[in-house]
Description:
This is Osmotically inducible protein C. By secondary structure, the protein is of the alpha+beta class.
Amino acid sequence: xxxxxxxxxxVKFEAExxxxxxxxxxxxxxxxxxxxxxxxxxxxxxxxxxxxxxxxLHILKKSRQDVTDCVAQVEAERVDAVPAVFKSIxxxxxxxxxxxxxxxxxxxxxxxxxxxxxxxxxLTNAGVDVTHSxxxxxxxx
Length: 141
């Protein structure tokens, strides 16, 4: 896996993934940024949420659950020091579907947290307190 990060002036960068997708990264105004892209730590948080969401949805689909929506709400707390690394991250999944089995949703979230989500497991191994929760909503007919 590779990525290329190109400087685009001031504190703005264009990041290109190995698969050819581009994301704009920009710094805060106090460092010369113009708020034209995500901050680097925000991007890490988006990666954790995306990785875990992929796992949860994939596991639920494999277990034949009729999922109509899946939203991960991700919150993080950073230490009050330099470097301002993550102290804790909480992922809350709002899973909507038809006649979803709670045991299957719980299992999907646990498997992502403990076995499959490389991003959250890597951060957990680095000392970040990563927690998960979920709620289930019945889809409207």
